[in-house]
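A.,

Following up on our hallway conversation. Structure tokens first:
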């Protein structure tokens, strides 16, 4: 099981659960998360979704070993459940709270563009490693990050492939609150409970009003990013980066 799902007091908690791979997303986890988000959206007894990771990572991003194997066998071009999960995030009608308990790399960072509230451990850090992997941005991050943190902060995150620590993430505005590690989940849960005590139809109406202006931008950015990603995937820079990462036994991406 790659995803833990639990309900308490109208809050559905999703825990990414591949700790041996630092919760890197493989096809199974992308699909499981997408299905869980859709089911939470449709469940009349769920008011809020809380997403976090098991172990010492939030998510180390895309599972590069699986990606490299799919590129080699020619199946990657047929599509990925990555897009299934992004659609589910975009369509989620209820508030999404992310509790970033550890490293957030690649989709482990860009997924935060879809969160309504982000809590981050003081020891956590984020990285968008696209240029170091020789690829393009993903998950409409080229649109959502400038909206969330401003053009220059987004440019640094997307262009540099450098780590951003929790204090800097808070300054930029990608993290709403930074907590000591032991306080992270209690604080995220306390705020989730405040939201969950409200009228669910009202929460849905507010979320729709907040999210609707961004939908066209997400769609357009996704198309641009996917086209660029496809052009660059398997190119010299990408092939060398994948070989280096998988040679080190890393699942980061």
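Then the amino acids I'd put at each of the 253 positions:
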């Amino acid at each position: 099981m790659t995803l833990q799902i639990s309900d308490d007091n109208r809050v559905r908690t999703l825990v990414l659960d591949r700790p041996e791979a630092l919760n890197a997303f493989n096809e199974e986890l992308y699909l499981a998360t997408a299905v869980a988000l859709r089911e939470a959206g449709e469940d009349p007894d769920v008011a809020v979704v809380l997403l976090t990771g098991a172990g010492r990572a939030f998510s180390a991003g895309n599972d590069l070993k699986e990606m490299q194997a799919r590129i080699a066998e020619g199946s990657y071009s047929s599509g990925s459940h990555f897009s299934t999960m992004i659609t589910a995030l975009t369509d989620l009608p209820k508030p999404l709270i992310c509790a970033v308990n550890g490293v957030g790399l690649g989709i482990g960072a860009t997924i935060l563009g879809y969160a309504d509230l982000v809590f981050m451990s003081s020891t956590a850090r984020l990285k968008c490693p696209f240029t170091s992997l020789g690829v393009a941005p993903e998950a409409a991050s080229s649109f959502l990050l400038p909206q969330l943190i401003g053009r220059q902060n987004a440019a640094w995150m997307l262009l540099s492939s450098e780590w951003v620590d929790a204090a800097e993430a808070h300054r930029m505005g990608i993290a709403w609150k930074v907590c000591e590690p032991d306080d992270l989940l209690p604080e995220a849960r306390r705020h989730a409970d405040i939201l969950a005590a409200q009228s669910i139809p009202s929460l849905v109406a507010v979320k729709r009003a907040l999210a609707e202006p961004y939908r066209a931008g997400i769609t357009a950015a996704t198309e641009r990013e996917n086209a660029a990603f496809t052009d660059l995937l398997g190119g010299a820079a990408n092939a060398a980066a994948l070989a280096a990462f998988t040679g080190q036994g890393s699942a980061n991406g």
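DSSP finds eleven helices and ten strands in the chain. Curious whether your intuition agrees with the design.

B.
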